[in-house]
Write a structure and sequence with these properties.
By secondary structure, the protein is mostly helical. It has one domain (about 5-80). Helices cover about 65% and strands about 0% of the residues. It is built from three helices and no strands. The longest helix has 23 residues, at about 5-25.
Amino acid sequence: MRFEGVQALRFVAALLVLVTHASFYASERLDPSVGTWWFGAVGVDAFFVISGFVMVVSTPGLSRDGDGALRFGYRRVIRIAPM
């Protein structure tokens, strides 16, 4: 299941972080009146919210049985942990 709106929000969040990082480097070389953008924090917060949404949507049967949370945690560790 893909949510196009969520993908668009991920893009905007990534763009905010990118522009903020670029403004830190560019502010050293550009006119001081350009300033530094601080919108990257909003992008990071958006990534946290989107991650929580994706986790809830990807685990519809988690609350039906008692060991669903353990299975979810095990699968997530196996998927993320380096081999």
